[in-house]
Amino acid sequence: MTEQMNAVGLYKHLPISEDNSLVDVTIDKPEASGRDILVKIKAVSVNPVDTKVRANGEDEEEPKILGYDAAGVVESVGEDVTSFEPGDEVYYAGVISRPGTNSDYHLVDERIAAKKPQSLSFREAAALPLTGLTAWEALYERLGISTDEDKNKGKSILIIGAAGGVGSIATQLANEAGLTVIGTASREETVNWAKDHGAHYTINHRKPLPQQLRELEIDAVDYIFCLSSTAEHWDNMTEAIAPQGKICSIVETEEHLDLTALQQKSAAFVWEFMFTRPLFETEDMQEQQQILTRIAEKIDNNSVRTTLTETLTGLNAEQLREAHRKVESGKMIGKVVVEAE
């Protein structure tokens, strides 16, 4: 008889105000094979992608399990696994095309998991994978920023949405890379948070950005990382970007973007989607394991901090609904984590 486990899933894609938007379910406990590792989940984090997937889609015949951040302990490994063994403490973000982490146990490809930072608890580690991978890939791969501090002297980056989950990591990494970091924030608490995490200056994303930059005696920025409403900020970004600069966004849009506005500046626009490598199983898929390993090293040497701000206890539908509500409120600073009891 197949062993069962508890999970939180959905059958209908509903507003979080509905009690059955997320429900407790019992499903088969998976078994590790191939390059998969089976992880006993200790904590998960909720991201905007969780809320978007929950709210949009067709009815499900089988419960759809969400969750794209986790920290836990390896229970067993597939026959082709080389990086882990039972008992290892790991953290990872998973992939959007497979069942998520909101369950007692979870299968993940070893190539996108890494050993968690030794100095962090499971809940502190669970706040990091998706945002850490997104920030790292955006800065160092999509925008092509050098990790050599000397090469970044005199260069600047504008991070739109600096106090959120990704922004909180991106400001730290950009500061460490030697860039002048300008973060956007609109409330006193988010301004303080952004500055505390590496922003040299803050400006208000609810007001025209180029004018505020000029008030800081910054005529243009070399890089822009957009974490909020790409279309809303498009005109501001195309005006603020320096000639031959680069803009990266993680926020999808149904509106057409005027790429011609970047032509005279020979400026580039690129997307960052953290799930690309595991979704398409690209040849460099294991790079995500390497990135998470580097982030863990930075955490353990105190050059980067976890961005956990709130913990809920109990990996069940009630606590996950509350976490979704917090993320959807638009007022989250840092990350919310749900810890298994």
TrEMBL record:
UniProt xrefs under SMART domains: PKS_ER (SM00829)
CDD domains from the UniProt entry: AL_MDR
A Pfam family that the UniProt record links to this protein: ADH_zinc_N_2
Keyword Metal-binding appears in the UniProt entry: yes
UniProt entry tagged with the keyword Zinc: yes
Coiled coil (UniProt feature): none
Domain Enoyl reductase (ER): 17-338
GO MF annotation terms: oxidoreductase activity; zinc ion binding
Family matches, as InterPro entries: ADH-like_N, ADH_Zn_typ-1, ER, GroES-like_sf, NAD(P)-bd_dom_sf, Zinc-ADH_QOR/CCCR
Alphabetical UniProt keywords: Metal-binding, NADP, Oxidoreductase, Zinc
Family under the similarity heading: Belongs to the zinc-containing alcohol dehydrogenase family. Quinone oxidoreductase subfamily.
PANTHER family: QUINONE OXIDOREDUCTASE
Name used for this protein in its record: Zinc-type alcohol dehydrogenase-like protein
The species this protein was found in: Halobacillus halophilus (strain ATCC 35676 / DSM 2266 / JCM 20832 / KCTC 3685 / LMG 17431 / NBRC 102448 / NCIMB 2269)
